[in-house]
Structures
1.
Amino acid sequence: MRFDLTDLHLFLQILDSGSITHGAAAAHMALPSASARVRGMEEALGAPLLRRSRRGVAPTTAGDALGHHARLVMGQIERMQTDLREHATGRKGPIRVLTNTAAMMEFLPERLAPYLVRHPRAAIDLKERPSQDIVKAVAGELADIGIIARAVDHGSLQLLPFAVDRLVAVVPRRHPLNGRRPLAFAALLAQPMVGLVAGNPLQDYVEEHALRAGHALTFRVRLRTFDAVCRMVEQGVGIAIMPETAAARGSAAMAVRTLALTDAWAARDLAVCVRDLQALPAHARELVDDLTGTAADGSAATDMRRARTPRRSRAR
């Protein structure tokens, strides 16, 4: 069997999006051409690579194996291109950073900006992934730096403190729960919810804990940003679970209030993970220093200690 780089790139886009249609679009390919390539790969292999359903596609065992090797091959191609680009232009290749939702939306902008300002020729390839997938990618040399929830099994990766992602409930200002002391997530399970789009790693994390508590969440609407979620909550559409930092911005500008959650899982220590800090290129190590700089002066460690003690909800 012979798969070319276009096949591998397309297949990875399909796996990442969970859809042949979206994968084809991401690979800048017409849907009929993409479908024909997938069929060709399956015929060459003699086994199905994807399980198809109304909700999209998922890899078979053979598809998982192909995806693993495709990522290794494409990662090696990217590193080759980066090395050659540096020789040709003197410009360093992009630093590959994978991050979970909380870090992407709440912490990274202010920590990445100083580095990028100091290095006008630097570039960062930043993508959002679930923590478990980030660990696999960093361990497999498909990413240079990851930002994950510390509770995730990180194997032999090195961890450095990053921040605390404290989740809270957000309710309309006139909601019956407004003014309550910290409460357990289980007390909110019957409430109509406003959430982030399906497949968002943070939203998946919240839904997983709802299922563990024996109740699937009922979403009235799903949106892409915390600001949009807060606006729906303000209008009384439902309540939401989001990082405290995002909730604070919402409550400062809108008629919403926050409620602290007593659940241990609602306060997550976030960490930077790398395979070997000293083996990273100098410019990537400098980025790690910037990402963990808040922890270097002790403030992140202080935040982590405080995160384990639920705080009273405050009217803002």
2.
Amino acid sequence: MELPFCRCGCGEHVTKARNRFVWTHQSRGVHNPNHDKKASAETRRKMSEAHKGKRHYAWGKKLSEEHRRKISESERGKKLSEEHKRAIVRYQKGKPTSAITRQKMSEAAKGEGNPFYGRRHSAETRQKMSEAHWQDGRSFEPYGLEFNAILKLAIRERDGHTCQLCRAPENGRAHCCHHIDYDKTNNEPENLVALCASCHSRTNSNRDYWTTVF
């Protein structure tokens, strides 16, 4: 049974028959007249104050260890749908990470905060990871001579310098040119598609699925 289309007019199918919209799409276009409006500085200040101090019931509260454990157990094993992942990418695309956040991420990845810090994979593990990541040894095949900068630029221009999966535009970094059939010697334009680095890395696994998608 074919699922109904999202009511925002995006042309995508909803994930469940009972849903009216694809995740996050209910706030788009005519369904939300304030979609393209931005809050004024005064409104943003009032919103900020409303979430501080005594005016917000959760301000300054911390979850107990038991509460966090229950949340962790309830979320364990859940997998995000492909549409959910794409929506997260669209939401996060172009958002800069502050210096404070980068510092916290760096500290969390070091020392006692990360049990794997300082460890190295064995040669056997690296070999298994390589075999799992690159199927049939395809990554070691040479590219054809025609797969050059001129051809890559032509493909990116054809695709509007936009990732054909998440629709992210190039932002200071050229998108990759992906071989749809994973044959590096097949450099026909119809076998090439522009993808951002993030989406390109996703296509290295589950190749039959991505070949069908493109």
